[in-house]
Amino acid sequence: MPATHTPVSHSFHVLSQNDLLATLPADELERLHHHLELVPLPLGEVIYESGGKLSHLYFPTTAIVSLLYVTEDGASAEISIVGNEGVIGVAIFMGGGTMPNTAVVQSAGYAYRLKAQLLQQEFNRSLPMRHLLLRYTQALLTQMAQTAVCNRHHSIEQQLCRWLLLSFDRLPSDELIMSQELISNMLGVRREGVTDAARKLQSAGLIEYHRGHITLLDRQGLEDNVCECYGVVKKEYDRLLPDRIAT
Question: Is there a domain that residue 120 lies in?
Answer without folding.
Answer: yes
